[in-house]
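New to this. Please check both lines:
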Amino acid sequence: MTKNAVVIGAGPGLGASVVRRFAREGFTVAAVARNAQTLAGLTEAKHYHADTTDAASVAQAAAAIRKEMGAIDVLVYNAGAFQMGGILDISPEAFDLCWKANCAGAFYGAQRVLPDMIANKRGTILLTGATASLRGSARFSCLAVGKFGLRALAQSLAREYQPQGIHVAHIVVDGQIDTPRVRGMSPNRDPSTYLAPDAIADTYWHLHAQHPSSWTLELDVRPAAEKF
Protein backbone atom coordinates (compact mmCIF):
# COMPACT_ATOMS: atom_id res chain seq x y z
CA MET A 1 0.00 0.00 0.00
CA THR A 2 1.37 3.42 -0.95
CA LYS A 3 1.90 5.96 1.80
CA ASN A 4 1.75 9.64 0.89
CA ALA A 5 2.40 12.72 3.00
CA VAL A 6 2.24 16.44 2.31
CA VAL A 7 4.25 18.98 4.30
CA ILE A 8 3.07 22.54 3.72
CA GLY A 9 5.74 24.92 4.91
CA ALA A 10 8.71 22.65 4.18
CA GLY A 11 11.41 25.24 4.72
CA PRO A 12 14.76 24.80 6.46
CA GLY A 13 14.27 23.65 10.03
CA LEU A 14 11.21 21.78 11.18
CA GLY A 15 9.52 21.43 7.79
CA ALA A 16 12.55 19.82 6.18
CA SER A 17 13.07 17.57 9.21
CA VAL A 18 9.47 16.34 9.03
CA VAL A 19 9.87 15.64 5.31
CA ARG A 20 12.97 13.55 5.95
CA ARG A 21 11.43 11.73 8.94
CA PHE A 22 8.41 10.55 6.98
CA ALA A 23 10.53 9.72 3.94
CA ARG A 24 12.66 7.44 6.12
CA GLU A 25 9.48 5.58 7.05
CA GLY A 26 8.78 4.82 3.40
CA PHE A 27 6.41 7.69 2.61
CA THR A 28 6.35 9.50 -0.68
CA VAL A 29 6.43 13.12 0.48
CA ALA A 30 5.27 16.29 -1.25
CA ALA A 31 7.12 19.34 0.07
CA VAL A 32 5.20 22.57 -0.42
CA ALA A 33 6.65 26.06 -0.02
CA ARG A 34 6.01 29.52 -1.33
CA ASN A 35 9.43 29.90 -2.97
CA ALA A 36 11.31 27.33 -5.03
CA GLN A 37 14.60 28.27 -3.35
CA THR A 38 13.19 27.15 -0.01
CA LEU A 39 13.04 23.56 -1.23
CA ALA A 40 16.49 23.47 -2.80
CA GLY A 41 18.44 20.50 -1.55
CA LEU A 42 15.41 18.67 -0.18
CA THR A 43 15.98 15.59 -2.32
CA GLU A 44 13.76 13.35 -0.21
CA ALA A 45 10.56 14.93 -1.53
CA LYS A 46 8.67 16.03 -4.61
CA HIS A 47 8.56 19.81 -4.82
CA TYR A 48 5.43 21.93 -5.17
CA HIS A 49 4.77 25.61 -4.73
CA ALA A 50 1.79 27.36 -3.19
CA ASP A 51 0.88 30.61 -1.47
CA THR A 52 -0.92 29.46 1.68
CA THR A 53 -2.72 32.79 1.98
CA ASP A 54 -4.48 32.10 -1.32
CA ALA A 55 -7.13 29.36 -1.37
CA ALA A 56 -6.89 29.00 -5.16
CA SER A 57 -3.10 28.53 -4.99
CA VAL A 58 -3.44 25.82 -2.33
CA ALA A 59 -6.18 24.11 -4.37
CA GLN A 60 -4.00 24.14 -7.49
CA ALA A 61 -1.04 22.60 -5.67
CA ALA A 62 -3.27 20.00 -4.00
CA ALA A 63 -4.73 18.98 -7.35
CA ALA A 64 -1.25 18.56 -8.84
CA ILE A 65 -0.12 16.49 -5.86
CA ARG A 66 -3.14 14.23 -5.98
CA LYS A 67 -2.76 13.73 -9.75
CA GLU A 68 0.86 12.66 -9.35
CA MET A 69 0.78 10.86 -5.99
CA GLY A 70 -2.82 9.83 -5.32
CA ALA A 71 -4.68 10.13 -2.02
CA ILE A 72 -2.85 11.77 0.86
CA ASP A 73 -2.50 9.89 4.14
CA VAL A 74 -0.78 12.62 6.18
CA LEU A 75 -1.03 16.41 6.04
CA VAL A 76 1.45 18.46 8.06
CA TYR A 77 0.75 22.19 8.13
CA ASN A 78 3.91 24.01 9.15
CA ALA A 79 3.54 27.31 7.28
CA GLY A 80 3.38 30.62 9.09
CA ALA A 81 4.14 34.32 9.08
CA PHE A 82 5.00 36.85 11.74
CA GLN A 83 5.47 40.58 12.02
CA MET A 84 6.18 42.04 15.43
CA GLY A 85 4.47 45.32 16.23
CA GLY A 86 1.89 47.11 18.30
CA ILE A 87 -1.77 47.14 17.35
CA LEU A 88 -1.47 50.69 16.02
CA ASP A 89 1.71 49.88 14.11
CA ILE A 90 0.59 46.87 12.09
CA SER A 91 -1.05 47.53 8.75
CA PRO A 92 -4.33 45.75 7.94
CA GLU A 93 -2.59 44.10 5.00
CA ALA A 94 0.16 42.65 7.22
CA PHE A 95 -2.39 41.46 9.77
CA ASP A 96 -4.46 39.74 7.08
CA LEU A 97 -1.42 38.05 5.57
CA CYS A 98 -0.25 36.71 8.94
CA TRP A 99 -3.56 35.24 10.05
CA LYS A 100 -4.10 33.66 6.65
CA ALA A 101 -0.63 32.08 6.66
CA ASN A 102 -0.93 30.95 10.28
CA CYS A 103 -4.50 29.64 10.17
CA ALA A 104 -6.53 29.95 6.97
CA GLY A 105 -3.95 28.06 4.92
CA ALA A 106 -4.42 25.02 7.16
CA PHE A 107 -8.16 25.22 6.54
CA TYR A 108 -7.58 25.40 2.78
CA GLY A 109 -5.24 22.41 2.91
CA ALA A 110 -7.48 20.30 5.13
CA GLN A 111 -10.41 20.80 2.78
CA ARG A 112 -8.34 19.32 -0.05
CA VAL A 113 -7.15 16.16 1.71
CA LEU A 114 -10.21 15.33 3.81
CA PRO A 115 -12.44 13.80 1.09
CA ASP A 116 -9.96 10.99 0.40
CA MET A 117 -9.26 10.51 4.11
CA ILE A 118 -12.98 10.19 4.79
CA ALA A 119 -13.41 7.71 1.95
CA ASN A 120 -10.45 5.65 3.18
CA LYS A 121 -11.48 5.97 6.86
CA ARG A 122 -7.94 6.90 7.87
CA GLY A 123 -5.61 9.88 7.86
CA THR A 124 -3.50 12.19 9.99
CA ILE A 125 -3.49 15.98 10.10
CA LEU A 126 -0.75 17.62 12.17
CA LEU A 127 -0.77 21.39 12.78
CA THR A 128 2.26 23.32 14.03
CA GLY A 129 1.39 25.76 16.79
CA ALA A 130 3.52 28.01 18.97
CA THR A 131 3.73 29.65 22.37
CA ALA A 132 1.40 32.23 20.83
CA SER A 133 -1.26 29.52 20.43
CA LEU A 134 -1.88 29.87 24.15
CA ARG A 135 -0.82 33.42 25.01
CA GLY A 136 -1.27 36.67 23.16
CA SER A 137 1.72 38.76 24.19
CA ALA A 138 2.19 42.47 23.60
CA ARG A 139 3.32 43.22 20.03
CA PHE A 140 2.57 39.61 18.99
CA SER A 141 -1.00 39.99 17.72
CA CYS A 142 0.01 39.10 14.15
CA LEU A 143 1.16 35.70 15.37
CA ALA A 144 -1.20 35.03 18.25
CA VAL A 145 -4.47 35.63 16.39
CA GLY A 146 -3.62 33.11 13.68
CA LYS A 147 -2.14 30.56 16.08
CA PHE A 148 -5.15 30.81 18.41
CA GLY A 149 -7.30 30.16 15.35
CA LEU A 150 -5.15 27.21 14.27
CA ARG A 151 -5.64 25.63 17.68
CA ALA A 152 -9.40 26.10 17.39
CA LEU A 153 -9.33 24.60 13.90
CA ALA A 154 -7.52 21.54 15.25
CA GLN A 155 -10.16 21.05 17.94
CA SER A 156 -13.03 21.40 15.49
CA LEU A 157 -11.40 19.08 12.96
CA ALA A 158 -10.74 16.45 15.61
CA ARG A 159 -14.25 16.50 17.00
CA GLU A 160 -15.78 16.30 13.53
CA TYR A 161 -13.50 13.72 11.90
CA GLN A 162 -11.87 11.65 14.64
CA PRO A 163 -14.92 9.32 14.72
CA GLN A 164 -14.26 8.72 11.01
CA GLY A 165 -10.72 7.50 11.60
CA ILE A 166 -8.83 10.75 11.06
CA HIS A 167 -6.31 11.76 13.72
CA VAL A 168 -5.85 15.51 14.17
CA ALA A 169 -3.18 16.88 16.49
CA HIS A 170 -1.97 20.38 17.36
CA ILE A 171 1.65 20.74 18.48
CA VAL A 172 2.61 23.71 20.64
CA VAL A 173 6.24 24.50 19.84
CA ASP A 174 7.20 26.51 22.93
CA GLY A 175 10.53 28.06 22.02
CA GLN A 176 12.79 28.82 19.08
CA ILE A 177 13.71 26.08 16.63
CA ASP A 178 17.39 25.67 15.86
CA THR A 179 17.99 26.89 12.31
CA PRO A 180 20.97 28.67 10.69
CA ARG A 181 18.95 31.89 10.47
CA VAL A 182 18.03 31.82 14.16
CA ARG A 183 21.59 30.91 15.18
CA GLY A 184 22.85 33.83 13.12
CA MET A 185 20.66 36.23 15.08
CA SER A 186 22.21 35.13 18.41
CA PRO A 187 25.60 33.53 17.68
CA ASN A 188 26.59 33.32 21.35
CA ARG A 189 23.37 31.73 22.59
CA ASP A 190 23.52 28.42 24.46
CA PRO A 191 22.52 25.68 21.96
CA SER A 192 20.57 23.87 24.69
CA THR A 193 17.99 26.65 24.66
CA TYR A 194 16.85 25.78 21.12
CA LEU A 195 14.51 23.02 19.97
CA ALA A 196 16.23 20.52 17.66
CA PRO A 197 14.10 20.18 14.50
CA ASP A 198 14.89 16.49 14.06
CA ALA A 199 13.73 15.80 17.60
CA ILE A 200 10.43 17.59 16.97
CA ALA A 201 10.04 15.61 13.75
CA ASP A 202 10.34 12.41 15.79
CA THR A 203 7.41 13.67 17.86
CA TYR A 204 5.37 14.28 14.70
CA TRP A 205 6.06 10.73 13.59
CA HIS A 206 5.04 9.41 17.01
CA LEU A 207 1.73 11.28 16.77
CA HIS A 208 1.04 9.77 13.36
CA ALA A 209 1.92 6.28 14.59
CA GLN A 210 -0.30 6.41 17.71
CA HIS A 211 -2.89 3.70 18.15
CA PRO A 212 -6.47 4.98 17.79
CA SER A 213 -7.19 3.89 21.35
CA SER A 214 -4.88 6.62 22.67
CA TRP A 215 -4.79 9.52 20.22
CA THR A 216 -3.32 12.85 21.32
CA LEU A 217 -5.14 16.06 20.37
CA GLU A 218 -2.58 18.53 21.73
CA LEU A 219 1.04 18.16 22.75
CA ASP A 220 3.67 20.73 23.76
CA VAL A 221 7.42 20.57 23.21
CA ARG A 222 10.14 22.83 24.61
CA PRO A 223 13.83 22.69 25.53
CA ALA A 224 14.59 21.46 29.05
CA ALA A 225 16.08 24.89 29.75
CA GLU A 226 12.96 26.79 28.66
CA LYS A 227 11.01 28.57 31.41
CA PHE A 228 7.25 28.07 31.30
About this structure: The first strand starts at residue 4 and ends at 8.
